[in-house]
Specification:
Layout: H1 2-7, H2 9-12, H3 14-30, H4 36-39, E1 41-48, H5 54-65, E2 71-76, E3 79-84, H6 90-96, E4 101-109, H7 111-140, H8 143-166, H9 173-199, H10 205-237, H11 242-284, H12 289-323, H13 329-346, H14 353-376
Antiparallel strand pairs: 1-3, 1-4, 2-3
Helix pairs in contact: 3-8, 3-11, 7-8, 7-9, 8-9, 8-11, 9-10, 9-11, 10-11, 12-13, 13-14
Length: 377
């Protein structure tokens, strides 16, 4: 599978880019909902009384306050969260719901505070991308890998925003925190891939990419599983915890987008860059692929010749050693002389005199022992 991906890596680069562009179109058409903490308004948590339903409460508030965009969220256990686009005084709101619900908490967020919060969010995202770009460029010192990592992180965020637009997840402080977490997840897998392909030299590009993919996909699927379990458990058991639901949903969508942007787009860009760099080196040193193959074949021939010579010497030496069992003295001396010649051939071509003297003394000692043995006989 990976081999097919690397063969068509230039085509696969377009898939995450197309998804990011479609997300921009969805955001432009459907828009992106903003939470009360960013657009301003009023937010109240209520305890319903008697048998009042959330729909009846919404109709009562709409009829008495005549406000826009009322959103009532059922939190379970007869508790609801009411969000109003307009700022309504707490006393006015309490008199409006009198007899139908009890106010647990009530917050008013003015337009000045919401504009300041949005400004801080923009600054946080810009600085996150800026510091990420500087750090990546310092590590790799090459512009193409750095741009690829930043582009992959940008695609992740756009895909996550497109999912938020489809599933009507509001842009709030919690979801913005999830988007910033997505930048960290994206950079993690992208730097893993870039380090394996550019910094390491062992193995082929395909084998290094395969090892990086195993590690990166394990990390991504583990994070998706954890966030998916958090989303399901929170949605079923604690529906009032909307912050956790929004964070987990945004992270799941962003991590799915990260798999596509990292292992399709970023891998394709790096493969194209590595191929271009290798072709540039070949042009610089006038190296052709056929020449490199011829050199490798010559080296293999030389190595095979050396090994064949060593094998023949060892075989001859073994034969001579077997003949040492013969009791004839003249044959023994000849065998020892031949063994000395072979030892001298395997050692350095210019042996020192001291070694020759020592070897001569050993031969004389052997001859003396043999003569003593004859006398004894």
């Amino acid at each position: 599978m990976l081999e097919k991906m690397l063969e068509n890596h230039k085509i696969l680069i377009a898939i995450p880019i197309i998804l990011a562009l479609l997300s921009l179109v969805l955001i432009g058409v459907n828009g992106l909902e903003q939470g009360v903490d960013l657009k301003g308004g009023s937010q109240a948590e209520l305890q319903l009384l008697d048998s009042v339903t959330p729909t009846e409460l919404e109709q009562t508030i709409d009829a008495k306050l005549n406000t826009n965009n009322i959103k009532v969220t059922n939190n379970g256990n007869n508790k609801v969260t009411v969000e109003l686009e307009n700022n309504v005084n707490s006393s006015t709101f309490t008199s409006t719901i009198n007899g139908k619900a009890k106010v647990i908490s009530y917050n008013e967020i003015g337009p000045v505070l919401s504009e300041e919060a949005m400004g801080q969010i923009y600054i946080a995202i810009i600085f996150a991308f800026l510091f990420m770009a500087v750090t990546v460029f310092i590590v790799f010192r090459e512009p193409v890998p750095s741009i690829a990592i930043i582009l992959a992180a940008l695609c992740d965020i756009l895909i996550a925003l497109g999912g938020m637009s489809i599933f009507k997840i509001p842009l709030s402080i919690a979801s913005v925190g999830a988007l910033l977490m997505l930048i960290g997840y994206s950079v993690d897998t992208d730097i893993l891939l870039t380090t394996r392909l550019l910094k390491r030299r062992e193995g082929t590009v395909e084998s290094r990419a395969k090892n990086a993919m195993y590690t990166g996909l394990t990390m991504s699927f583990a994070a998706i599983a954890a966030m998916g379990i958090l989303f399901v458990v929170t949605k079923l058991i604690m529906p009032e915890a909307t912050t956790l639901i929004n964070i987990s949903a945004v992270l799941v969508m962003g991590l799915i987008g990260d798999i596509l942007s990292t292992w399709l787009m970023n891998l394709g860009i790096l493969k194209t860059y590595i191929d271009w760099r290798q072709s540039k080196k070949q042009d610089k040193y006038n190296i052709s692929p056929s020449a490199t193959k011829a050199k490798s074949s010559d080296n293999s021939k030389d190595e095979s010749d050396d090994t064949s010579e060593k094998k023949s010497k060892s075989r001859f030496k073994d034969k001579l050693k077997k003949k040492t069992e013969v009791e004839d003295d003249e044959v023994m001396t000849k065998i020892e002389e031949e063994l000395e010649k072979i030892d001298n051939m395997e050692s350095s071509p210019a042996p020192k005199k001291s070694k020759n003297k020592k070897s001569g003394k050993k031969v004389n000692k052997r001859k003396a022992k043999k003569q003593k043995g004859k006398g004894g006989k």
